[in-house]
Amino acid sequence: MTHPLYVAFIWHQHQPLYKSPESSATLSTSQQYRLPWVRLHGTKDYLDLILILERYPKLHQTVNLVPSLILQLEDYIAGTAFDPYLEVSLSPVEQLTDQQREFIIQHFFDANHHHLIDPHPRYAELYDRRQNKGQAWCFSNWELQDYSDLLAWHNLAWIDPLFWDDPEIAAWLKQGKNFTLGDRQRIYSKQREILRRIVPQHRKMQETGQLEVTTSPYTHPILPLLADTNSGRVAVPNMTLPESRFQWAEDIPRHLRKAWDLYVDRFGQTPRGLWPSEQSVSPEILPYIINQGFKWICSDEAVLGWTLQHFFHRDGAGNVKEPELLYQPYRLQTSAGDLAIVFRDHRLSDLIGFTYGAMSAKQAAADLVGHLQAIARMQREKQPEQPWLVTIALDGENCWEFYPEDGKPFLEALYQNFTDEPHLELVTVSEFIEKFPPKATIPGERLHSGSWVDGSFTTWIGDPAKNRAWDYLTQARLTLASHPEATEENNPEAWEALYAAEGSDWFWWFGVGHSSNHDAIFDRLFREHLYGIYKALNEPIPSYLRQPVEIHEALSDRRPQSFIHPVIDGKGDEQDWDKAGRVEIGGARGTMHSSSPLQRLWYGVDHLNFYLRVDFRTGVKPGQDLPPELNLLWFYPDKPMNNSPVPLAEVPDIAPVNYLFHHHLGIDLLTQSTYFREAGEHYQWHPRFSRAQVALNNCLEIAVPWADLQIPPDYTLRLVLVLADEGSYSAYFPENALIPIEVP
User: Fold this and answer.
1) What is the mean pLDDT of the chain?
2) Residue-wise burial string across 260-287, b where 16 or more C-beta atoms lie within 10 A, e elsewhere
């Protein structure tokens, strides 16, 4: 028989524990939350996702709800959770302190302004004032009504558009301004109404069979690192490890049992699937998962590749060349029993998570379905009798902020395409495994120890700051172990603080790799959870926990932190580029460029384009203080192809400008016109068509489609910028280096 192509979406819904253990010592009924993201994402992302799906009853999906998220939602529903954003939102503006007013101006635009601020005229007006006139001006000139309106709009904007037909919400959106304290109190009540529906709606749809709800270890720890921090060296043999080796495998069954029990209580049945935190797996953790009763887990294609010693190559369209290896479940064989595992298609998951928000809804939906149709054709050609399962698994909350209307038009277009396409069938993972038990096997001891990030654990260990945090955790864990009388039954505070500190998120933000506007708060929360262990045991708190794990100051050079999708308008929108790579130039890299007209380079990618932004020194004008021609030259290390020298006169014989390059984009900074060339034989350059976008205003912004470069995914290339005047070399950037670019 010929099978349809089965597709399993798994949406991962997670937030770390923002609740401070310090609050319990000062507040009898209220819980102090350091950040508002459970409440705000709860009103924007968790309920609407499955309500849209419910309109398409033939389509089945899987949603993972992390226990720590459920518990925090319940605090807000009960009215006992208060975060700093909520506290000022419910305060009379007449009583706001100067510190609170500064906090509001600084943080109440914490949202993607393209999709959460700009659509609302009053919110956009306040945002433009802050951006154009500055925070100090707003503090000196804003009236009380400005504060009240901003407080209202920050909470309104995070309510999903799916709920805008609610009469009260519709009235607030129409009102637009002149919000009162009473309005803000009712908006908060509406938020709690939405939060109250999340878990019951998941339970209802699971009972009807359209949804499978899975769980994760209790507070989202990296289980392989709890078992042994030395597992970091499986993928990176020379990794620098913490001074103290963390080996507390006994905490793994505790996290799994607590997750299991909470799930049974909230959903009235036992869970079948487990989303290991950060899709992190290792041979050591499998027996604990099996013994707890889970039937399947999921991980990333990189982990499968390491396990099989097979790199998944893709064709020019981004489709896997060896699909039969990836698109099937596997049976992990261990002495404790067997466990099914599915591996997600990393690229298809990333397209939804990082790229489709920059495309029109219909175009994006058609692109994803087109990839799946191509896979279905390969299935019919290669293995028509064998059912294939394509697993698409990703964060189910953060990406929608980058989509118009929080992704509603995209999901509707996508689900309609699935409904109309007879060769694609959306299933839950358990449905597929029960119907088609895995035939391929992997001995448990052969499973690679790694995560979804490059098949390694470098995001959570190996960096000096991350290692320091592990050492702090180890000392706290040893202190708890020295108190055998402190059990989970008679001293739950100590154990809950431990579980919170073992969560993955703190290590994610420490050190190099990821950064946010709240790094210092994450640092503080981690240390507060460690405080909680010592306080509950009546032990003195180590002095080092009084100081931040690392200094949180502005970074200099850095690699890209995530995909970006900037609007190419020359304005250098701070939110568009906050996850981009950055190279400091003017005065920050020695003396060579101390008087450079260029100050900083920003660069990044998505699946459509390479992006570059150039910040100039204030007052610099092309043709006067700045040579009028900018040349982008791409170098392809260790790739056999035709290459040519920089096509300018008077180029010095120094690296890297004496390299041979394959692509060249010339930009006239006076007219913003471009020309594109490709190297040919005999060191010649040949003109090629380009769809590159260029805009010069406050800065220079450039988008170069990957289609111009005609290179496949997972490719490495390098870029240098060369300034010229009338075809003669002037200067190059960055100093003594090339910008590293990884094609997604």
Assistant:
1) 93
2) bebbeebbeeebbbbbbbbbbbbbbbbb
